[in-house]
Amino acid sequence: MAKTTKATESAIAAVDAAAAAARDAKRLSATLPKKDAKKLNSLAGEAKDASQVSKKRLARRPRKVTKRAVAAIARIEKATDKAEAKLAARAANATKAVKTSATPKSPTTRATPKVSKSPKAAAPGLSDGLSALTVVQLRDRAHSAGHTGFSRFTKAQLIALLSS
Questions:
Q1: Residue 108 scores a pLDDT above 70
Q2: How many angstroms separate the first and last alpha carbons of the chain?
Q3: What is the pTM of this model?
Q4: Which CATH architecture is the domain 120-164 placed in?
């Protein structure tokens, strides 16, 4: 039986993570606009290539394999975060447009500003603060807020859930 070093074990873990990231990126790209989906698909292909390494290469150069897989995962995460931020911005703009179009103002009445005592209205940059949190922290907040069914939500979906 061959001896497995720590470097080889970490390379195997990185390769598995790269394969999982490629699958997740492919799934996410189906929900994105064409331009973002194209970029994410190409990065998913790179991650898949990084995860398909021979046992011989893995045994000979485990650190190089690890480095390549980790870099592919980082590129996917960066592109995913960008795409999710765009989706969240589009969703915010869409809800803003719906709210403004739902309450038509008549020319004879003057609109009075509504004062809300909710904590969401008191903190104007709430979604900005949420975007700085990790997905794990957002899930903890959603759980403590009493929400259910959010375990597979993306970061953008969790932010939308918590800011609504």
A1: no
A2: 56
A3: 0.55
A4: Orthogonal Bundle (1.10)
